[in-house]
């Protein structure tokens, strides 16, 4: 019997835990601050166990890891390095769905020395995006070609019939994570030139792309794309871009929320007793009793009847509603309000779109455009697409490690054929598949 430790019981944990419990020789322990969430995940399964655990209890974390054969961290990313260090000390493999931090990267040699695999970025984005891209990149390279352009887009959105609010968005993962991502700067390569987007300008720099069968979406840059040139082994590219997809109108609205100061992380102690109208006035120095709609439009240099102002009104930012927090940062207030208003209703489906566009060139002046697209929907009354596409790759990776089918050591992401071929094949059995097209281009 293999003992799997799952740290955290959040929104993406359910499909992961269930997949692992479906393996007949796995015992799964879920440790979470809120033990009721862990208990709900394991139910009455004979090989499932729930335990209350606080992330600051390092002594108990040591015990948990020593008792496990593998640890999966679904904790906030700031805790992954602590878990990884203990896994290395006790020679236990570890899996996370988060980006590799600089601190995690520095553990590579120690992990290799301990013959331990720390497998990161094995969710949807990052994760399935890497694996599906590498499958095509390696195929092109094996056929003697080279990748000269790569654009990759991913978005977690409401399914079209569930797209019922002016923001075109509902939360299938951490609201605070979504809001924080709006502060990231971005960098990519276009026609051989680096393009840098400061965090405050992230939402000013976007374009529209069309996804077959679904229509138009806005795309804006997702962090720093340039390191993936080396990671993917495509130093022949002249354009390299990783972007986020949202419904139309998202970027203009979020740019104005940034300009207003709603993404500020500085904690404030003057929130008690304030309404949203009062709160917004503190940013624009508006007059009490004044026409707030007109004042905020003037401050943001937009028309007071614009779609942006209409979205602000729908969200309740100009209302007399009391703030959801008495203490916290503007970002905390915004995240709480968004979570309250941008919820999935019972039976509604979410949707994942992952779309790659490659230009490949081959000897003999042959040039080809390849597109690869995943469109996956949640299950009404069941798992969200976000939870399936994040949780299942991590669960499959954990299973393959424990079965000895993934033998790498050190700090890795799933760009190696020994990893991605097996994981993608298992994901296909779970119904997570890509539609690929190619067309010849004239040179």
Catalogue the unreliable spans.
none
Q: Tell me the count of domains.
A: 3
Number of helices: 16
What is the CATH class designation of the largest domain?
Alpha Beta
* CATH homologous superfamily designation of the largest domain: Dihydrodipicolinate Reductase, domain 2
The helix-and-strand class reads alpha/beta
Strand content: 15-25%
Distance between the termini: 58 Å
- Taking Cα atoms only, what radius of gyration do you get, to the nearest Å? 23 Å
Give the strand line-up of the largest sheet: 3-2-1-4-5-6-15
| CATH architecture annotation of the largest domain | 2-Layer Sandwich
Could you tell me the mean pLDDT?
A: 96
Could you walk me through the main structural features you see in this protein, from its secondary elements to its overall organization?
The chain starts with a strand and ends with a strand. By secondary structure, it is an alpha/beta fold. It folds into three domains: 119 residues, NAD(P)-binding Rossmann-like Domain (Rossmann fold); 174 residues, 2-Layer Sandwich (Dihydrodipicolinate Reductase, domain 2); 62 residues, no CATH class.
Task: List the keywords.
Dihydrodipicolinate Reductase, domain 2; 7-stranded mixed β-sheet; globular; single chain; 443 residues
Summed up:
The chain has 443 residues and is of the alpha/beta class. It is built from 16 helices and 16 strands.
What order do the helices and strands come in, and which of them pair?
Blueprint: E1 2-7, H1 13-21, E2 26-32, H2 35-42, E3 48-52, H3 58-67, E4 70-73, H4 80-89, E5 94-96, H5 102-105, H6 108-113, E6 117-119, H7 128-142, E7 146-158, H8 175-181, E8 186-190, E9 193-197, E10 206-211, E11 215-221, H9 227-231, E12 239-246, H10 250-260, H11 276-284, H12 292-300, H13 307-315, H14 330-341, E13 350-362, E14 366-377, H15 385-402, E15 410-412, H16 417-429, E16 435-441
Parallel strand pairs: 1-2, 1-4, 2-3, 4-5, 5-6, 6-15, 7-12
Antiparallel strand pairs: 7-13, 8-9, 10-11, 11-12, 13-14, 14-16
Helix pairs in contact: 1-15, 7-16, 8-14, 11-12, 15-16
């Amino acid at each position: 019997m293999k003992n799997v430790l799952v740290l955290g019981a959040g929104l993406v944990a359910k499909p992961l835990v269930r997949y692992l419990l479906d393996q007949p020789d796995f015992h799964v322990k879920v440790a979470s601050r809120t033990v009721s969430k862990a208990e709900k995940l394991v139910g009455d399964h004979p090989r499932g166990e729930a335990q209350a655990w606080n992330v600051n209890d390092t002594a108990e974390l040591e015990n948990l890891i020593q008792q496990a054969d593998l640890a999966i961290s679904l904790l906030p990313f700031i805790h992954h390095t602590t878990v990884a260090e203990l896994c290395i000390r006790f020679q236990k493999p570890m899996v996370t769905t988060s980006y590799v931090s600089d601190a995690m990267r520095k553990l590579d040699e120690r992990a290799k020395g301990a013959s331990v695999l720390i497998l990161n970025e094995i969710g949807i984005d990052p994760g399935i995006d890497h694996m599906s891209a590498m499958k095509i990149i390696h195929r092109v390279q094996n056929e003697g070609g080279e990748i000269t352009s790569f654009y990759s887009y991913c978005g977690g959105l409401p399914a079209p019939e569930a797209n019922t609010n002016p923001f075109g968005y509902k939360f299938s993962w951490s609201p605070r994570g979504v809001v924080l991502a709006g502060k990231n700067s971005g960098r990519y390569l276009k026609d051989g030139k680096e393009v840098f987007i400061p965090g405050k300008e992230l939402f000013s720099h976007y374009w529209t792309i069309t996804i077959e069968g679904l229509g138009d979406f806005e795309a804006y840059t997702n962090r720093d794309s340039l390191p993936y040139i080396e990671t993917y082994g495509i130093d022949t590219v002249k354009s390299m871009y990783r972007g986020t997809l949202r419904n139309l109108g998202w970027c203009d609205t979020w740019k104005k929320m940034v300009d207003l100061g709603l993404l500020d992380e500085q904690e404030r102690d003057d929130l008690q007793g304030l309404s949203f109208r009062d709160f917004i006035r503190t940013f624009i120095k508006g007059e009490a009793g004044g026409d707030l709609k007109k004042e905020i439009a003037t401050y943001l240099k937009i028309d007071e009847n614009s779609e942006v102002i209409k979205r602000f009104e729908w969200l309740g930012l100009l209302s007399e509603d009391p703030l959801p927090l008495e203490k916290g940062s503007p970002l905390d207030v915004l995240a709480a309000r968004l979570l309250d208003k941008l919820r999935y209703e019972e039976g509604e489906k979410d949707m994942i779109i992952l779309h790659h566009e490659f230009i490949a060139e081959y000897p003999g002046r042959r040039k080809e455009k390849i597109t690869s697209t995943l469109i996956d929907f949640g299950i009404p009354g069941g798992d969200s697409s976000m939870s399936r596409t994040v949780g299942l790759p991590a669960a499959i990776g954990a299973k393959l490690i424990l079965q000895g089918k993934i033998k790498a050591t050190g700090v890795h992401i799933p760009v190696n054929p020994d990893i991605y071929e097996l994981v993608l094949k298992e994901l296909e059995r779970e119904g997570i598949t890509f539609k690929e097209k190619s067309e010849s281009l004239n040179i």
